[in-house]
Amino acid sequence: MKTILKEEKEKIIIQNSRFIAIMIPLETNDITPFLEKIKEEYPKATHYCYAYRYLDDYKCSDDHEPSNTAGLPMLNVLEKEDLNNVLVVVVRYFGGIKLGAGGLVRAYTKAVTEVLKKITPVLLEEGYTVEISFPYSETKNVDYLLKEQKIIQKEFQEDVIYTIQIPISFLESLEKYSPKIIEKSFYPKR
What we know:
By secondary structure, this protein is of the alpha+beta class. The chain contains 4 helices and 10 strands.
């Protein structure tokens, strides 16, 4: 399984219609803020079709294009490329020429394929979000130990509490700090 680390965009024109493909990395399956932002950025577009895969969750939308001519072909590209934790939105400005069902499938597939040329996929690895607690005197040692890991949150209370994302293989390295597993997930390989 692969993902992307940063947002990319690509524009194509087919029969006077403009298609703008936007591929976004996801850390949640709540895509509403991304869709709202794109609709603000492209307010006069005719359609905002999308597909996403986040872990075992996936969804697609034709946004008033004929059924299965936009969202499903876009989702098929994500599946074929084994991309996960990503959202792709294709914004369409209608150019006055109807493309027909086959033409729409080809156009939306091409838009996603073109934006894929701009990304560098990274492998996803199975891991955990964990919480560890330790005395302030251990902060320097813990920071060194976690230099390659993603620290999501740091809290400074009676003890220091870190919430981190780690690969499964790293869990053993944290035994000294009695890691509390919050959730199991997949994260970009570092």
